[in-house]
Amino acid sequence: EAGVVQSPRYKIIEKKQPVAFWCNPISGHNTLYWYLQNLGQGPELLIRYENEEAVDDSQLPKDRFSAERLKGVDSTLKIQPAELGDSAVYLCASSRTSGGSGNEQFFGPGTRLTVL
Amino acid sequence: GENVEQHPSTLSVQEGDSAVIKCTYSDSASNYFPWYKQELGKGPQLIIDIRSNVGEKKDQRIAVTLNKTAKHFSLHITETQPEDSAVYFCAAIDVGNEKLTFGTGTRLTIIP
After folding, report:
1. Of B41, B49, B100, the CB nearest to A45
2. Per residue in B53-84, pLDDT tens?
3. Set of chain B residues whose Cβ sits within 8 Å of the Cβ of A44
4. Where does residue B84 fall: left (phi above 0), alpha (psi -120 to 50 degrees), or beta otherwise?
């Protein structure tokens, strides 16, 4: 089966500019996650979707970040305006379902954002 | 919320030797502990996981042990090979909010 697809793979922008990342999860996966990974750190959850509903966005900086998952498939993460500190890798992951019992999360290759 | 600590941050071993990476977690209610391998320019990939009702799990050269009382779990890689070189992350799931919390990673280098 095809893996999680993300685009673009790399993005360089100037501060205060907007930027958007796109993710296509594995077919049939209801749960979609966006993570932020700073250099030398583990991924940190930004938002989790169950189908088209954002069920956990507590870590999403809502003043500048927004996300959507129309029709419960593809998802877009947007930053407007970008700041220098937003430079990081943005990872998308998907799983069949979520839950405390644990369901394997499959990660995409990530988008490396550089803000100048 | 959950807090996961991982040690060491870097590890170099001779090819063929064993490597051990250790993690501790804070939330005694956590019940799922995956390990991910991340190669340069790629996303993390699950290599093995363990649930709280099991003390040990093995898959070929990789094994994970879990001590619920002490709240720590470890990854063991035997007969290391150059392709094992990567960054490894442990993680624990917070059953309260179903959020996967990652450790800070271990950069493993296999010396040929």
Report:
1. B100
2. 889 999 999 999 999 999 999 999 999 999 99
3. 102
4. alpha
